[in-house]
Each structure stands twice: as structure tokens, then as C-alpha cells.
Design goal:
The chain is of the alpha/beta class. 34% of the residues lie in helices and 17% in strands. The longest helix has 13 residues. It starts with a strand and ends with a helix. It holds the Pfam family NAD_binding_8. This is NAD(P)/FAD-dependent oxidoreductase.
Length: 469
């Protein structure tokens, strides 16, 4: 029987381990922290009985992941739960851009822009499974669905601000800007529309669900499935060098390219080392977890029922804030992402005390305290929020990195989505998972297709390893 070692138990490390175990490989996962999960962990913070997600919150690409959909994870405890409203983006006049799973229902709420929204996203949502199968793997393959891929690609390569010109209302433009901002890129740059198009299409195909009990349920189910197929997981094991690892035919690293350099040392070919050292990191996330009595008093009713809310104002305001953080400047009004998972999963609350998950986009390595700015942005669209807040727990960019070393500088997406790096990450290579060290592969979100609790980076890396086993 072949043997493999996986370093890191985030969603990608566990996905890689499961993919290998299903093919009969004996797998051991080594995790430095005391618990598994990487960015997909959950638990109580300051108020007993109130469950918070530590990083990842909503999972439009998780429920639609080509790999995760192949697995019977419901047998291992994973249950998806959907809110009544998937996504809302409030504006100062009390209105909001609103996305429901149904394209037609969303179009009805967007008024004059409904027809244009439907014309763009109805075909993309219908094609989502085919498109996901193409773009959630390296670009170096022969497309099996060229028409669907081309339809997506024509929109994805555009700057988000250019694509948004097809809509006239502030609500539709802001709704798209909020999803595009997940790329942590200036919205006027090429390819900045890609993530917005992908996440919106995923939302219309599968919705924006949460995992019952917390995002840790996703990695928990993967771990249980791995153990059921003979895999082992050891926590509290910090690996500092490949030389410390037990003998194995394959080693998969769920770490950043820079960490891979530290682990491999002189074993890395010079060209690979240089590419990994040049790998650019994204801006940071400053996280603020709240416990709110009675929920957030949004001025807009749809926001009160939305599982996810993008706070940032108009398209122009979102574009300005994202441009500032990429330039290393803290905006006065940053983009703030808000998740109200308890609306779909009431078991996370304790009575009328509810967990509210937020993070702001800030410059990479931002040293300041963004908590007041985050609360001010929320209060802007939900007056009276501060009076309802029972507890606040903030996590700076430095603390994000201590929580998960892959999040250096607060970069939770593992690498800047520059036009080149978004497509050819972590380096230009036919097989981007190979490190150049025989039998050693990179399987983190720094590899294609990038960030998200979808497990595809790990699955693709495992397939690369299996070709050599």
C-alpha cells in the first residue's frame, strides 16, 4: 500500500487526504494546531452557547464543489442550511440590492435592471456545474465544455466596473460590486469581474448556505470520512522541515508558497524557490465577531432576513475602498462582510443572543484596530446596533496569522488575485501542484482554483500525486 503525509488539516489538506484514501493510499494528516479545520473552524467565544465561525462562513462554492458533491458527507454529519434571503447589499436611502437563489425572483426585485440581470446570470447559473468543472482546475487542460467556458470567460476577463455598466440602478450595481469585492482587487483592474460572476452564478445555482452547527462541520465531516477509510490525523504536530516527516511516497503541503520554501529548504529547485518567494499576498481581513441581542436592526427588511450582507455603499464607494487597501491605505469606509448564519441555523444562538460574523478589508499587515470603523459602517445601515451589542471579539491581521499561519498579513485568500496570479498560481507550470521536489506537492489555496471551502485545491493536488504513485 502506498503511503502519503499531508501537512495541514484545512479544507484542502483534508480533501487531499480523503481523495488519496479513497484510492487505497494510507494517509496521515499532521496539524500544528490543537484542532483541525484551518479556516473552517467554529466555536464559542465570549458568550456560552453562542457559536461563531472563526473564518469561513457561507459556502456557495462548497455546496457546488465538484469534489465535495461527489462525497456522501451527509453520512458523516454535514447538513447544509439556507437562509430566506441569500445576500443583500444596503444603500443609504434604505433600499438594497437583493439576491435570492431564484434568478427570476432576484430580477423582480431589481426593477429596471431585472431583465439585464436575468439575461446575464440565468445562462451562467444553468451552466454552473459545467463551468465549475473547467475553472476549478488548472488552465492547462482541454476544455470539455468550451461553449459554457467561453460564455463565462467573456464576462470574467472584464473589470468589474466595466461589467457593472450594463445595470443602471444603484442597487444592481452595488449588489454585483459586493460579490466582486471578494477578490480583494481594485474593481477597475482586468479579470476583477471573475469572482463576482462566479459567486453570483453559484448563488443562483445553489444558494449561499451555511453548515449546520458551524463551518467546522465541513472539515469535521471530511475528517470522519477520512478516518472511516483508514486515514489518521495527528494534532499538535508542528512540522518545520520535510526531513522531520516519516517516510512516504507522497507529501502534500497545505501551506503557503513561502512556508513551502521554509519546509523544503535547499531541496527546492532554484526556479521554484524564486517563484514561491515572489508569490504576492493579498490585502488583509480584520475580523470582528459580535453577539447581538435581537439581531442587527438593519434599516432594510431584506437585510434583516439575509444570511449574508455586503456593507460598503455604492459601486463607486466599494471600488474606492478596494483600491485604497490594495495601495496600502486604510479607507475611512472599508468594505465589511457580514454573516447572520443563525437565520438559517438557529442552533448557533442562545435565546435572543445571536452571533454576527464580520470582517473588513484592510491593507496587508494593517497594524491598527479597525473595530470602531467596522461598527461605524454597520451603524450606518443599522442605526441602534451598538445598543444591542452584548460582546465584541476582534482579531487583527497579526492575530489572523497567529490563528492560521497561512493567513500571513491577514491574507485569508492565500495570494493576490492579480490578472496573472489569478490564473497561473502559484507559478507558471504545467502542473502547478508539483514543487519540483520528487513526491512533494502543494495543495493549499495558493494553487488553482484558489480560496474557498470547496476542497478543489486539495483534490487536484491529490490527483497529481496519484499519477505518480
Amino acid at each position: 500500500m502506498s503511503e502519503a503525509v499531508v501537512v495541514g488539516s484545512g479544507p484542502n489538506g483534508l480533501a487531499a487526504a480523503v481523495a488519496l484514501a479513497l484510492r487505497g493510499v494510507s494517509v496521515t494528516v499532521l496539524e500544528a494546531a490543537g484542532e483541525i479545520g484551518g479556516g473552517a473552524r467554529s466555536g464559542e467565544l465570549d458568550v456560552p452557547g453562542v457559536v461563531h465561525d472563526h473564518c469561513s462562513a457561507a459556502h456557495p462554492t462548497g455546496v457546488g464543489s465538484p469534489f465535495l458533491r461527489m462525497l456522501p458527507l451527509e453520512r458523516y454529519g454535514l447538513r447544509w442550511r439556507w437562509p430566506e434571503v441569500d445576500l443583500a447589499h444596503p444603500l443609504d436611502d434604505g433600499s438594497a440590492g437583493v439576491m435570492l437563489r431564484s434568478v427570476a425572483d432576484t430580477a423582480a426585485l431589481l426593477g429596471a435592471d431585472g431583465g439585464s440581470w436575468r439575461a446575464l446570470f440565468e445562462p451562467l447559473a444553468a451552466d454552473f456545474d459545467a463551468v465549475a468543472a473547467e475553472i476549478m482546475r488548472p488552465v492547462t487542460h482541454l476544455p470539455a465544455h468550451p461553449v459554457a467556458l467561453a460564455r463565462f470567460g467573456l464576462r470574467a476577463v472584464q473589470p468589474a466596473t466595466v461589467l457593472a455598466r450594463r445595470w443602471r440602478t444603484a442597487q444592481a450595481r452595488a449588489l454585483f460590486a459586493g460579490t466582486a469585492a471578494h477578490a480583494f482587487r481594485p474593481l477597475h483592474s482586468p479579470v476583477s469581474a471573475a469572482i463576482g460572476v462566479m459567486m453570483t452564478a453559484a448563488g443562483h445555482r445553489y444558494g449561499w448556505p451555511v453548515a449546520e452547527g458551524g463551518s467546522g462541520a465541513v472539515t469535521g465531516a471530511l475528517a470522519r470520512m477520512l478516518r472511516a477509510h483508514g486515514g489518521r490525523i495527528e494534532t499538535g504536530v508542528r512540522v518545520r522541515s520535510l526531513a522531520e516527516l516519516p517516510a512516504a511516497e507522497a507529501v502534500l503541503l497545505d501551506v503557503s508558497p513561502q512556508a513551502a520554501v521554509e519546509l523544503a529548504g535547499d531541496r527546492l529547485p532554484v526556479r521554484v524557490r524564486r517563484a514561491y518567494e515572489r508569490f504576492r499576498r493579498a490585502p488583509g481581513a480584520f475580523k470582528v465577531d459580535l453577539v447581538v441581542e435581537g439581531g442587527v436592526p438593519w434599516r432594510n427588511e431584506h437585510c434583516r432576513r439575509a444570511g449574508f450582507v455586503h456593507v460598503g455603499g455604492t459601486l463607486e464607494e466599494v471600488a474606492h475602498a478596494e483600491r485604497e487597501v490594495v495601495r496600502g491605505r486604510m479607507p475611512a469606509r472599508p468594505v465589511v462582510l457580514v454573516a447572520q448564519q443563525y437565520l438559517a441555523d438557529p442552533g448557533r444562538s442562545r435565546g435572543d443572543l445571536h452571533p454576527v460574523w464580520t470582517y473588513a478589508h484592510v491593507p496587508h499587515g494593517y497594524p491598527g484596530d479597525a473595530t470602531p470603523v467596522v461598527l461605524e459602517q454597520l451603524e450606518r445601515f443599522a442605526p441602534g446596533l451598538r445598543e444591542r451589542v452584548v460582546a465584541v471579539r476582534s482579531r487583527s491581521t497579526a492575530e489572523m496569522a497567529r490563528y492560521n499561519p497561512n493567513y500571513a498579513g491577514g491574507d485569508i485568500i492565500m495570494g493576490a488575485n492579480t490578472p496573472v496570479q489569478a490564473v497561473l498560481r502559484p507559478r507558471v507550470a504545467w502542473d502547478p501542484y508539483r514543487t519540483g521536489v520528487p513526491g512533494v506537492y502543494l495543495c493549499s489555496a495558493a494553487t488553482p482554483p484558489g480560496a474557498g471551502v470547496h476542497g478543489m485545491c486539495g483534490f487536484n493536488a491529490a490527483r497529481s500525486a496519484l499519477r505518480s504513485l
